[in-house]
Amino acid sequence: MTQTTAESPSRRQRAQLRVRTLRTDRWWLAPALTFVALTGFVAYGFWAIFDPTYFVEPYLAPFTAPCLATSCPEGARLFGFAPFGDWFTLPPGILILGLPAGFRLTCYYYRKAYYRSFWLSPPACAVNEPHKRYTGERRFPLILQNIHRYFFYAAILIAAILTYDAILAFRNSDGEWGHMGLGTLILVINAILIACYTLGCHSCRHITAGRLNHFSRHPLRYKAWTLVSKLNARHQLFAWMSLFSVMIADLYVRLVAKGVITDITFF
After folding, report:
1. Which band of pLDDT confidence, cut at 50, 70 and 90, is reported for residue 88?
2. Residues 147, 93, 89, 169: is their CA dihedral positive or negative?
3. Fewest Cβ atoms closer than 10 Å to its Cβ: which of 54, 141, 168, 191?
4. What percent of the chain has pLDDT over 70?
């Protein structure tokens, strides 16, 4: 008598599918919308960097902050300084382009977003990707994603500068405090969203208290970690909201500076 045993699940051959996916929903919609949104943002960013109209008292377009070149109007310069002197003739926005761009490019959420929408790696869950092999982020250029934590420090600085510029937006054209316009409100909202996105970064959560073994011994760091964790839970939301807010704020200032629209003054 021959004894038979059931085949082990681990030894069963994986099903061979001839279709890309068995999903019947519109799985392609999310990566398609992400592709359009990110492409539009990049296109606007390049236009804004080379656009010379970026300042009108008391508003400075966020894509040009901080304005450190001599070509910057005096009211737009950070603390009145222009450390790059007359030799720097390129648009001032190029000076700081790599800091916020590098932070978003290496962000954990944005990696997922553009890996799916631009590289189709994979385009969605349970959808086969066109690439035959996967090497992860161990080789050039993706190994550069590991410097995200260093871009975080630069992003904190940029967020602080945008907050400072939003505070200056409460001054009128004569430098007196007490001004409140639609531009002021837009810049304040943008600064808040940028701060929420930056502080909700995974690197910030790790730096705050990610390496502690006993929270009870570090109550202040634990409270900070709790706050950052709440922001981190909505990191994707703040990533998109801050992406659109910085573009809207930048465009609004430029349209006011060009005379296309008039800033609404509340008081």
Report:
1. low
2. negative
3. 141
4. 92
Under 8 Å between Cβ of 155 and 198: yes
Decide if 141 is inside a domain: no
Work out the number of other CB atoms within 10 angstroms of the CB of residue 146: 11
Range of the structural domain that residue 70 is part of: 48-133+146-258
Residue 35 lies inside a defined structural domain of this protein: no
Residue 266 lies in a domain: no
Torsion sign, CA atoms 126, 129, 133, 135: negative
- Is 74 domain-assigned? yes
Q: How many domains does the chain have?
A: 1
The model scores a pTM over 0.85? yes
pLDDT category at 165 given cuts 50, 70, 90 is: very high
Query: So what's the pLDDT on residue 233?
Result: 96
